[in-house]
Amino acid sequence: MIHIRQFQWSDYDAVVAVWIAAGRDGLPRAELEAKLTRDPELFLVAELGGEVVAVIMGTYDGRRGWILRLAVHPAHHRRGIATRLVNELESRFRQLDCPRVNLLVMPDNAAALQFWQALGYLPLPDVLCSKPMQVGRR
Prior knowledge:
The chain has helices spanning 12-21, 29-38, 81-95, 110-118, and strands spanning 2-6, 43-48, 51-60, 65-72, 100-104, 122-123, 128-132. By secondary structure, the protein is of the alpha+beta class. A hairpin with a 2-residue loop joins strand 2 and strand 3.
């Protein structure tokens, strides 16, 4: 069963391993420390059997939410984990009364564009996708 929770420093090595397995660079601890001082509740991991298998990082600047670095370990693709992470992050954005969420997608990544569009994100010129959020504390 998938369990989604906030990132903890003890997850760092596992998160970097997921990013690397997904073809991304790991982020240095110093960069994550800066992010975690701002909105730690928007950095989430998905666990399966106690193992970190996916990660998503969000940030909110008071005007727009941003989704950054969604990654699922390739051994766990096509199980709905990415969608569950996005749904949880969107829920947290709504709790912050965030009116819109944006993300960047590489223009040649057709699978990613298709994934985000299926979740209601609309492509804007070139690489930006955006989704208005229904705000109001629940």
